[in-house]
Amino acid sequence: MVKEKTITIVACYFGPKLGVGVFMEKLLNVLLPILKENNYKVNLIANQNVLANSPSLVVDGINIITPKELDKSGSSKIYFLTKFAKTKFVTEAKYVFFLADSVIGSGIKNAISIVHDINEFDITNKFGRTRTWFRKQMIKRVIARSKKIIVISNFVLNQIHKYFPDTKTDSRLSVIHNGIDVKYAITENELQERQTEPYFMIVGRVDPLGKKLYEALKIYKTYKKFHPEIKLKIVGGMNDFCRKDGTDFINFATANDADVEYLGYVDEDKLNELYGNALATIFYSQFEGFGFPILEAFLRGCPVISNADNEVNDELAQGYDIKIKESDIENDEVICLKLKQLSEIPKLKLVSIATQFSWKNTAQKYFNVLND
Predict the structure, then answer these.
(1) What is the layout of strands, in order, in the sheet containing 199-203?
(2) In what order do the strands lie in the sheet with 173-175?
(3) In this structure, are residues 145 and 115 in contact, taking their beta carbons and an 8 Å threshold?
(4) In terms of C-beta distances under 8 Å and separation of at least 24 residues, what long-range contacts does 162-168 make, across chains too?
(5) Structure pTM?
(6) What is the pLDDT of residues 252-270, one digit of tens each?
(7) What is the set of domains in the chain, with CATH numbers?
(8) What pLDDT, on a 0 to 100 scale, did the predictor assign at position 311?
(9) Which residues are CB-contacts of 159 (< 8 A; sequence separation ≥ 6)?
């Protein structure tokens, strides 16, 4: 196989399959067949954690390599900074495609890197001092060393321009939005027959600081003062970096309120059912590279209550979310006035917005970059 027809893909993460893990699985399940159909040889550099969480990636015709160094976060970073550049998976590849948290050694000249966000620059001490410092250093090297850089939203593009104003990136940067499983799109007839149940949802990693979950809980509690039948269902896993804070939040949210239920990580069919029956989804994170829950909810005709300060919301929701300012979190009157709009949201328009994003379209755009 000639070099121009060989792609090496780096897909590693640690712990549960949360946002980045889901992204990898969804993208690769569509992108790998496209590469195979176009006669590319694909080397997939992964760890055992990825394969255990996403067994669908183990398919015929894909060369899967699992260096033992990748089973731990610290040793994996050392591997990518030192050994990886000298392997044939780099030297014999047209591109080395890093799907997340790129760690690019100085000897790698053919890297394509995805930057999901650089929220470490916006949120003080997001992951603890040591990991935050390291992540910032790695992001700087990604910006400097990548042959091509892909960002998942215009918001992330603006973040890069903001924090790296002197770095010449325009010729190397492109925006490719994430996708969602549009097979779950609710039809017009189903919308007319849809009977919502009195509950809100919170979906995503249980990270109270990063996702502003206490503020989201406040919105629910305010609404409950005037609508005592309302319930709250919290869906999502926890990683090691937010496990303690996440556990504290769940304990706080469920204490003395039997109407708050933590469901943990659920499969797609269950998530589809939950979105389809919910009165609304509260997605109050301020800094997001993308924000899957917005489009996932829209696809089922479920309105989204969002943080007015979250810039990526405008990019995805196109003004059809219900925005609440953080300065109004303690203002019951404002929150109630805002939430009266739930019944006025054009549900079919939400579905129309969401179906503009699909993994098929996303994967094709990534293939176009790799095939260039």
Answers:
(1) 260-264, 231-235, 199-203, 280-283, 304-307, 322-324
(2) 62-65, 41-46, 6-11, 95-98, 111-115, 148-151, 173-175
(3) no
(4) 163/118, 163/121, 164/140, 167/143
(5) 0.90
(6) 999 999 999 999 999 999 9
(7) 3-179+358-371 (3.40.50.2000), 182-354 (3.40.50.2000)
(8) 87
(9) 117, 118, 119, 121, 122
